[in-house]
Amino acid sequence: MNKPARTPQQKKRLSYAKDRRNAYGENSKSSRKNIPRAKALARHRQRHEQNRALRAVLVAGSEEQQVAAEMRVLTAKPGDWGKQPDVPLAKHLVLQASRRAKVCGRRRPTRKGI
């Protein structure tokens, strides 16, 4: 079936609601490297903790210590890294306007006597 025709105003409203912008504060292209790097570091930390707990099991003298160390291995939590979602375009524009208002309100000090 045919889609209902939308007015330009409706299209603009939909664009503000559905379009997203990266507001994390760093170069959007750097995410290509930083996201895999952060995931790898989280997994590396998890493996490091598990290896440390496994070594504790091997070194443990009493059976109680072995059970406690083994429980640390089994209950080790996964890395706590996660991506942040992008912000809707409407919210991004509001944030941008407020930032711009703060900067534009300032005046550069003039040097007198030069």
Task: Tell me the layout of helices and strands.
Layout: H1 8-18, E1 20-21, H2 31-59, H3 63-74, E2 87-88, H4 89-104
Descriptive overview:
There is one protein chain. By secondary structure, the protein is mainly alpha-helical. The chain has helices at residues 8-18, 31-59, 63-74, 89-104; strands spanning 20-21, 87-88. The N and C termini lie far apart (73 Å). Helix 2 (31-59) packs antiparallel against helix 3 (63-74). The chain has a domain at 28-82.
Helicity range: 55-70%
Task: Specify the biggest β-sheet.
Answer: 2 strands, antiparallel
Class inferred from helices and paired strands: mainly alpha
Which ranges are low-confidence, i.e. pLDDT below 50, for 5 or more consecutive residues? none
Order of strands side by side in the largest beta sheet? 1-2
Average pLDDT metric? 83
Assembly state: single chain
State the end-to-end CA separation.
Answer: 73 Å
Computed CA radius of gyration, to the nearest angstrom:
27 Å
The tally of strands reads 2
Task: List the total number of helices.
Answer: 4
H-E order? HEHHEH
* Beta content: under 5%
State the shape: elongated
